[in-house]
Input
Amino acid sequence: MTEQVQEYLSNAEMAFASGQHEVALELCEKAIAEDPSHADSYSGAGRACLVLERLPDAEQYFQKAVDLDSTNGERYFDLGNIKFGLEKYPEALANYAKAEQLGCEDDVKQKLYYQTGMISYMTGDVKAAMVNFEKADDFGVVNEDTKEMLLQRIQVYIETQDFVRAENYAAQLKMLAPDEFRSYQLYFQMLIANNKYAQAEEVLVEAEKYSDIDSDILNKVDMCFNKALMYSARAEIEPENRNTHYESAIAIFDELAETPDLPQDVIDNIATSKAEIYLRIEDFDAALKCVEDISIEDEGIVEIESDADLTDEDEFMGEENLGEKVGFIKLTCYLGNEDFAKAVDFVPMLKVSKNEQYTYFGTYADAFIARKLAEEDASQADSAEHKYNSAIAFFNNKAFTNPLDLFATIFRIRLYAENGKYSKAEELIKILPDALKEELNKYVADCRAEKTMAKF
Output
């Protein structure tokens, strides 16, 4: 390496570290012009192009570095990374394999196994992903990339419903980034998912004391939702103080709503969250009042706030459309108030929703409302019978497609009971977990008693 090339590359390294990526690229290109046979010049140019999001150019520079220094594993690692960024996963994997074969420093190997794990995960091989993540952990390297790797790991475990491991990595993230609110937020969510409410509450205290919560209004919004969530959790744990805890949660939302310059999606989220609390205490009029100013035509997708715990029902819900969410709340309220003429207006939108919870509830409500209207108008009896048969067929198909679909079976039981097919309902109850049997058996008995009373 000539002295001139050495000077170019030294200055390029300083420019890169200072965030002057265009200058760094220019200096690397000057080094290449001075000596086209030096691989470090091409690697430096590739890294600059990567940060500047010129991925095809970066790919060419890293490929040239490999051509010039083909026994250096870290050259292949760099090339693999750019292939990963270009979503050329088989080529990325081939380069990572070559890097491993030739050898790399430990910090590079850690990232290599992490990236390989991400490729496995994105291509559907979760088991291989987990093995590679464990390999990455074995190096015990902590550097500027560790936080991002932990965040991605947590996301993978959340998506695979492994909340225990997600909690473990969230705890590590909190220790690594004790001044960042997001690390406390993630750890809090994982503790809630694992029903560790007391520990979750302690994390909120820590977050207020040590994190950068004041750096962003949305951090404060998240904290208010967290606190309301804790009161909701207490309401379920302490049924004797249920209403008091729910009122405390509502008070937090009311105070948050007074914050100036809140984004509209936050305002809408406050309204729907309050409405959902009122639904739990069956104050349907108050719930309706919360959402009366939200347009039902709103097509925006909203994030689902955590509930008191992450159960199968949360997995069942998926992503929510704001208009559909409001429609679901209004339908639930009108059913609760037995205002079936208004309730029926919200059925069509929910029946065709991409959210399975809404589709199920809309399909069930369609039959239930039809039966209630037929009780007032006998001419609608045939239509009600048809809707019951259609709804039962719908849920039968769901149950046959996925025999472990708990909600499809629950709705089948309710429909059979309401339609006078008590024996079929009772047979289905036998296959459910014991925790659900008492309530459903009572529902069947109530339907039978109601039918008997109607004869007199």
In short: Confidence is low (pLDDT under 50) at residues 298-318.
